[in-house]
Write a structure and sequence with these properties.
Blueprint: H1 3-8, H2 52-56, H3 103-133, H4 140-180, H5 185-199, H6 205-229
Amino acid sequence: MSLWGTLTGKRTSSGSPAPHSTSTDTIPKDPSPTTSFQSTSTPFDPTSAQDVSSFLGGASLPDPSQLHPLAGLNQQTLDYLSLDESALSDLPGGRSALPSRGWSDDLQYGTGVTYLSALTLGGAYGMVEGLRRTPASAPPKIRLNSVLNSITRRGPFLGNSAGVIAMVYNGINSTIGYYRGKHDSANSLVAGALSGMLFKSTRGLRPMLISGGLVAGAAGVWTVLRKTLF
């Protein structure tokens, strides 16, 4: 032991230490792998891919027709969806342009068609009247205002008047046909005269006769057209 070893208390060896062996020295090194991996996946075929129609048309999606509120109902048992031929009016001369089951259908069809026709004619007459009353040198806004005022004045007036007369006419015509047991030209003429006279009953005798004659003439024209066309 040297003087330095005596002072520090460390013991020095005379020889070099033996190298320590590691665990890697005992493991054999084999460069070749012990296992092999083989790919088992098949190549991609574009023809076998699914498109949008393959799942949109499948049975997994619900039927859109089943979303309707009346889906699943038996339409043959619903009276308002099917017009039974046995329920149609069987009075002679009761058939018209549309199938009718009685006075209620005649009242609805006749009043609606008459009102819309008179409203259209009144509006057309008001448009012509408005264009004639406005001078050609007037600004476009003034001409448009005049035309609209004439249309809204003539159209609703004529439509409402004709609708009221049609309601009274259909009511009287159906009543006469019920008691007589048939619908003919005489029923239409009498119903037209009475409804026209009743419409102008507050204006005096002369307006009553004029109105009754006009409505009776219109009813006669309708009777001739119905026999000719239908």
